[in-house]
Amino acid sequence: MLEVTPSWQTQFEAQHQNAAVPKWLKQVRQDAFARFRELGFPTRHHEDWRFTPVTAITETVFNPATKPYTSVHLPEIKGGTRLVFLNGIFDSELSSLAPLPKGVIVTTLAQALQDFPEQLESQLGHHASYQESAFVALNTAFATEGAVIIVPRGVVVEDPIHLLYVSVGTHYPTIAHPRTLVLAGEQSQITLTETYLGSGGGMVFTNAVTEIVLEQNAVVDHYKLQQETYETYHIAHMQVSLAKNSNFSSHNIAIGGTLVRNEANALLGAEGIECTLNGLYLATDRQLIDNHTFIDHAMPHCNSHELYKGILNGRGRGVFNGKIMVRPDAQKTDAKQTNKTILLSKEAQVNTKPQLEIYADDVKCTHGATVGQLSADALFYLQARGIGREEAQSLLTYAFASEVIDRIRVPELRDRVHDALFTHLPTTIRPEEF
Amino acid sequence: MLEIKNLHARVDEKEILKGINLTVKPGEIHAIMGPNGSGKSTLAGVLAGRATFDVTEGEVTFNGQSLLELAPEERAREGIFLAFQYPVEIPGVNNMYFLKAALNAIRKHREEPLLNSTEFTKLIREKAKLLELDASLLNRPVNEGFSGGEKKRNEILQMAVLNPYLAILDETDSGLDIDALQIVANGVNVLRSPERAVIVVTHYQRLLNYIVPDFVHVLAGGRIVKSGGKELALELEEKGYGWIEQETRATAGATA
Question: Which residue of A lies nearest to B87 if distances are taken between CA atoms?
């Protein structure tokens, strides 16, 4: 445990002193902040943080990010609903609200707190536990803005809902605490994208928490694309609570940032749940991308699938820790986890660890991790047909990533991931028709 | 077109090729036969530029250019094509895209206009039809999940599309049924022209019933120990490789 610098205390007091918020929220924030002080930032002595030093965060005094003066370039999104937050602050001009099916709510956290505080009281902070994590505690204590999505029972939202969190760096270190809450009612269905973008110079700390709740038979297709600047520290927790027969799928693409830590946790607390957590991470020089996943099988007859793929170049580093818990009641669990990493350089490095804890006896659990280079045979085969070495490397790297990219069902997001991938490849060829 | 002089090559520390001499002129078809382990595939691999083989001595020129100094892709662009004995599976890379990228890389090198998707699709359908190949192979990832026969057919389709000056078939006939064998032979015969040459590396005489070679060479112990016309292949089929090896040992004994 590290001593928490006094600046956090000052900031906490300054931010919330005069805030007009419901009493329960005031209490939650105070409790979370107290817990943050107790926990302190993790160090490398914590098993879960062994390979991911956060000293740069610990030792820096961050100021709350403010509305940027520079204009930002946003990816084009055709139609649909999007909420845009610049440095954690909602920007209504950049956002657009397309007509939504009756009863569907897509709004900001601040607005939701005004409009229906009771509904938030029973959900906000109830899924992502600030007891366990200093970063969740920090977010819970400080988060004032973010997105709230509520889909009522039986409603199917056809078009994806896009959330864009954009950080614009400045000459001093800044911090933002994006907070997302998604409540998918019984038999509802939505597709949701969370995109984290960055521009400008300067150190940025994005400390995000996303809570997603699926009621019975709900279907949520979730995507996260993290593409911030190389001076960004991105720490994110996603906590998913799944009810009976619900189906959750998430694709987590991490490309930007100097230090990225994604925690994706799913609690399978009823029968008949289907849960998919997939991911792709690309890291090059001065980048460390750490994915920690935790799938908690608490009840019988649930399936979970996990495929995380990494492409590491230069001195890029990756960490993957995939924990699967199968509790005594969770008979007939079918859990499959795969982590594959390609190292494109001698200096690149990955630490991968599957972590299976199985307390039921009639289950099917498999896990596999591979770390390797591009296949020399495949490279030679492509070269022997006239394709240059670098282009062949790009093609094979692309093919490796495509196993995850091809599963992205939002075309414009898939295109953006394609584009981002190509800027990482040795050549800029663009296979237009894979 | 191709001139191989005193070629020596090794894999790890083991010398496999011990002084190969061979001249191939445009329009010719050469068959290289020989027992297992004689160095046939090594020779094919060295010509295509496989890095696992270390050339220790000798030289190879292709149209007057020193071949051994070129990267595999440069050799391909100059017009050399190796049909692999074991075609590589490449998950995630579409066969059609792969072949288009290859063809355009070669065309670019030759300063010919690149083909767009429509032109390419037209070309490839023609070639597939000519060879009586199932075009559905094209929409799958390169060789992934292909049967042995499908992989070999895919090699022949690639050869037909890339239209090389020198095609080297490395035991393309091994493990093929008679239908697939005819497709392979058809591919070679379609390619056959006064300005192109083919080297057929094979263990069996069977393929040579369909592809009539101008020359047959027997490779044994890393050297070409006997050369002749197409009748040599029949002789080998009849008598096996034993007599060649005996003859070679006798010669080696006599010179020792």
Answer: A381
Letter string b/e over residues B122-161, b meaning 16 or more CB atoms within 10 A of that residue's CB: ebbeebbeebebeeebbeebbbeebeebbbbbbbbbbbbb
Q: Hey, which residues 400-419 in chain A have their CB within 8 Å of chain B? A: 400, 402-403
Q: Which tens digits make up the pLDDT trace of A286-325?
A: 899 999 999 999 999 999 999 999 999 999 999 999 999 9
Residues 6+ apart with CB under 8 A from B144: B89, B90, B91
Q: Is there a contact between A251 and A414 (Cβ–Cβ < 8 Å)?
A: no
- pTM of the complete model: 0.88
ipTM of the complex: 0.95
User: Measured in Å, how far apart are chain B's first and last C-alpha atoms?
Assistant: 34
3-state helix, strand, coil in chain B (%, to 5): 45, 30, 30
For chain B, which residues lie within 8 Å of any Cβ of chain A, measuring from their own Cβ?
Answer: 48-51, 71-73, 75-77, 81-82, 84, 87-88, 90-94, 96-99, 101-103, 105-106, 109, 117, 141-142, 158, 162
Rg of the Cα atoms in chain A: 21
- pLDDT value of position B256: 41
Name the DSSP class of A156.
Answer: B
Tokens of residue A194, six digits? 């969370």
* Beta strand segments in A93-155, E: 105-108, 146-151
Q: B174 is written with which tokens?
A: 């091994």
Top-tier CATH class for B2-255:
alpha beta
**Among B76, B91, B92, beta carbon nearest to A385:** B76
Q: How far is A223 from chain B (nearest CA, A)?
A: 21
Contacts of A398 in chain B (CB under 8 A): 92-93
